[in-house]
Design brief:
The protein has 146 residues and is α+β, with helices and mostly antiparallel strands. 31% of the residues lie in helices and 15% in strands. The termini are far apart.
Length: 146
């Protein structure tokens, strides 16, 4: 009998929840920065249907959850060339903060910087690998710092 691999979410020393590196090491597409910047790239590349989302939850052993509790997130964002494969997807919780809402801020910032010509595709990918290093809490809001 084969046992299915059950992935885990880990809590770092700073309290951030990260994906299991064995299950979600991150995966990028073989694309150039020019490809990523083409109109419609994100829409074509964001192929995460309900079957795939359910598979990610199953791999991480999450059987029940409330709406808004998790987001099936790309380790490397689509705008940064991230693939919509199981190796790049994980259930990221909203809480504790920083959670998926704050990671979305970092991804949006980095991809905007790339569109402005201030970051390369490789820099976007490196930036989001250590996304919490680019966040600061100001009052009740989170801000992205470079």
């Amino acid at each position: 009998m084969l046992l299915a691999l059950v992935c885990q979410l880990y809590i770092t020393g700073t309290g951030v929840i990260v994906p299991d590196p064995k299950c979600t090491p991150g995966e990028t597409l073989s694309v150039t920065q020019e490809d990523v910047l083409k109109k419609g790239f994100g829409k074509k590349s964001r192929d995460v249907d309900s079957a795939k989302r359910n598979q990610v939850y199953e791999e991480y052993g999450i059987k029940a959850y409330r709406a808004g509790e998790y987001e099936i997130d790309h380790f490397y964002p689509v705008c940064g060339g991230g693939a919509s494969t199981l190796a790049n997807l994980y259930p990221q919780p909203a809480n504790p903060e920083p959670g998926f809402h704050q990671k979305d801020l970092v991804e949006t910032f980095a991809c905007r910087e790339m569109r402005k010509g201030k970051m390369t595709l490789a820099e976007v990918q490196a930036f989001v690998e250590d996304w919490t290093a680019h966040l600061v809490r100001v009052g009740k809001k989170w801000k992205v710092v470079r």
